[in-house]
Amino acid sequence: MKTIQYLEKMYLQSFEDQSDHLEQIFKSYFEEDKNKWWDFKENNYDITKTIINRLKAFYNNGNDIKKLVNKNKLSPASDFFVEQVVFFVNLYFSKVNPGLVVRSEKRINLQGGKYIVPDISIWDDKDKPVAVIECKTQLGFNRSNWDDDFNKRMKKLPNVKWFYLVMTGKNWGGFPEEYKKKKKYFCLLDEKTWPNKFEDISQINNRIEDLFLELKKLKKVSKDQRLVNIFKDYSIQNKEVKLIRNYLGKDYLIILDKFGRLTLNDSAEVFPTPNTLYNGIVSFVKQVKSSSGHNDVGQFTIKSTGEVLSDKKYPNLNKKTRN
Fold this sequence. Notes:
There is one protein chain. The chain is of the alpha+beta class. It has 2 domains: about 30-215, no CATH class; about 225-320, no CATH class. The protein has 8 helices and 12 strands. The protein starts with a helix and ends in a 21-residue tail after the last strand.
C-alpha cells in the first residue's frame, strides 16, 4: 500500500511535470522551422482547436475536483484562458514579427496618474504599446453593457489597436453580425457550446488564427541585429545564450534567444533591446519606471566564461535609441 507521504509527493510532482511539459511544447513550436504552423491557411483550425482542447481539459479536471471536495463552483478559468492565448501570441510573433514583445497583465500608464492593465499587450522596440487583446470567458454577466465598457477602454489608448477575444458565446449569444465584420471582435465557440462539450470545428464561431492574421498587420519592428549576431557567435547547438548584467552590485541572469530578444530571468519579462532591458531591471528592482538606460552591449558578460561583450565588435549604430 502506498503511503500518504508518497501520494503527496506524487501529487506535488504532477505540478512540476505540467510546467515541464508546457515548456517542452513551447520550445518545440519555437524551434520549428520546416512545418510552418504559423502560416495559416483558410481551413486551418489547429491553434483554435488546441486552445479549446486545453480549456476542455481544464474544465473537466475542475469538475472532477468539484465533485471530489463537494464544491459549489468551479475554479475561474479566466486566468487559464489568458495564459493559453498569450502562449500562442508569443510564439506567433517569434515567427512573424520577433521585434515586438508580448506581455500579460502589464500596467500601461495614462495621463493624470491613471493606468490600465490589459490582459495582453504588445509593445514595440521603443517600449510603447501598439496593440491590446482583452480576453473574457463569456459576457453573460455584462450582456447589456460590454460594448460600452470596451469602447470606454479603447478611448483611453486611442492610438493602439484593440481586440476583444471571448471564449464562448454561451450565456450571452455571441457578437452581432455587424461586429464580426470589424475584425477586432472574436468569439471562439458558438452560443451552444462550453469548452468541455467541444467535439469538432462545427462548434467553432471564430478562428483565433484570424485574430493572429490581424496582428500580423502590425508595423514590422526590426530585430537588434547586434543581439542576433551575438547569439550566432556564442550559442552552442542553437541553444539560448546566458548573459549577466550587473546592477547595484548584484548579477542578473539574462537569456538571449535566436531572435535577439532578452529575457530578465527574475521577472520572465522580455525586452527587444539592451536599453529597454536595463530599464526593466531598474523597474524590477526599484518598482519605479526608468528611462536612463543605454543601448551598448558592453554592459553584458557571457555567463559561462565571464567575457565582457565588445562594443567595438558589436557597435551601436543607432545612437538615437539612447535615452
